[in-house]
């Protein structure tokens, strides 16, 4: 089945492409007349503007409800494609989709719109004296480290009534087109406002041609990949970036005593196992008050074993396997020379690793279910340990209680963290989260305010130009 989505109205010339990832290949179509495609997307944007925002949300909710069922055929096909290219187990991919698609329900979407816009219906026309207008066309360049990740930005763009050019990720090619096929069955005007295709990262001609059609750009990827896109963005284009990010966990004395070592360990293991620890939301390190660090690490080893039995880890590629083996060797060398270090690992395999240390060494590598427990004197020391990484901080699983929670959360916010979560829930970000600290719905729109109001006018007047 094709990994691209080309609406039927797109009668401009297309060409076939083959997307290769490892030993696997997928095929799709790509427009060659991007000017004509851009004109078609602008017409699709006009049709999209006719839909009330609550009808858009309702249609997305129906599609998400279908995708919530694990036996839904489109989902099974997407899971199969993702397992082949990522090496993740089908259960890991299914849980990732549960998390991503689970955020696309009516209550969650309306809450996100209300949080960022106040009244969602400002997208339909003037509410009082103000109206919000989304871009005509958004270019979204996706990465594939988390299955289902494109759904969030795709849905945000559609909710502000923007058409979309989506560059699908090579590492997770099946989801976007499959979700759009479902959305087309529910409400064709939504899916018909999207062109989803693929081009190589060094194909500057196609990237530039697609970029010329866009009023806004959303980029996911490494810092280098995002910088290359940012350099091409024009001053009039809205730009949103999701580059390299780091996440940490913290466990206080009070939190440890409240929940006990087994439950704390279960939560840490969940955070280090979800998505095989490949998401930016996944913790690189858990900083634990020194008095309890060894007890926590010992219990985490057992919890990681049980998590691997419940949801099997994937098979890392050759490069990742080599990096993981090197990380273990470094940790074992540290353990042999330091009374504050120890290593626990899956017998005979790379399924999971737990490292206890008393020093936060330079972070090297990530992913593949490595739980690093680093002992710190107190919560202030935990915050200080994160300061050198301020530029890339994203998410902290903060295990703290009462006033200490809010005090430390405030310090983390000032350091640069954009999300504070409960340990065990680090990977389950809601749509209300302002992704990477910026309003991702409000950030797309521009506003029109009526500064001089007539004496009498209806409370809600439909906007006629966009």
UniProtKB/TrEMBL annotation:
Coiled coil (residue ranges): none
GO molecular function: acyl-CoA dehydrogenase activity; long-chain-fatty-acyl-CoA reductase activity
InterPro entries found in the cross-reference section: Ald_DH/histidinol_DH (IPR016161), Ald_DH_C (IPR016163), Ald_DH_N (IPR016162), CoA_reduct_LuxC (IPR008670)
Domain of life: Bacteria
Keywords: Luminescence, NADP, Oxidoreductase
Record Pfam families: LuxC (PF05893)
Protein's pathway: Lipid metabolism; fatty acid reduction for biolumincescence
UniProt EC number: 1.2.1.50
Top EC class of this enzyme: oxidoreductase
Single GO biological process annotation from the record: bioluminescence
Catalysed conversion reaction: a long-chain fatty aldehyde + NADP(+) + CoA = a long-chain fatty acyl-CoA + NADPH + H(+)
Membership in a protein family: Belongs to the LuxC family.
Physiological role: LuxC is the fatty acid reductase enzyme responsible for synthesis of the aldehyde substrate for the luminescent reaction catalyzed by luciferase.
Designated name of the protein: Acyl-CoA reductase
Organism: Saccharothrix tamanrassetensis
